[in-house]
Amino acid sequence: MQVADLIAERIASGELAPETLIPSESRIQQEYGVARGTARRAVAQLVDRGLVVTIPQRGTYVRPQS
């Protein structure tokens, strides 16, 4: 939850702009020092919140704000 909140803050601040890739799960592991499962759950929470969308074999992108 904390990792998802930190990434959500980056999205809200504009650091991660709409339609840009968020860090990969492996990058999230490195940046935040968390396990792969934690990184995966953080991305899933962001998807559930409607902040990002995952496109298979392409990555996870910040959703455009409406």
Provide a descriptive summary of the structure in words.
It is a single chain. The protein has helices at about 1-15, 25-30, 35-50, and strands at about 50-55, 60. It has about 70 residues and is an alpha+beta fold. The protein has one domain: Arc Repressor Mutant, subunit A (Orthogonal Bundle), CATH 1.10.10.10.
Comma- or semicolon-separated keywords:
3 helices, 66 residues, alpha+beta, 2 strands
How would you summarize the topology of this molecule?
Elements: H1 2-13, H2 25-32, H3 36-48, E1 52-55, E2 59-62
Antiparallel strand pairs: 1-2
Principal-axes geometry comes out as globular
CATH architecture: Orthogonal Bundle
Per DSSP, what share of the residues sits in E-state strands of 2 or more residues? 5-15%
Helical percentage: 40-55%
Please provide the ordered H/E string of secondary-structure elements: HHHEE
Side-by-side strand order of the widest sheet: 1-2
Unreliable sequence segments: none
CATH topology: Arc Repressor Mutant, subunit A
Number of helices: 3
> Which secondary-structure class do the elements indicate?
alpha+beta
The description of the largest β-sheet is: 2 strands, antiparallel
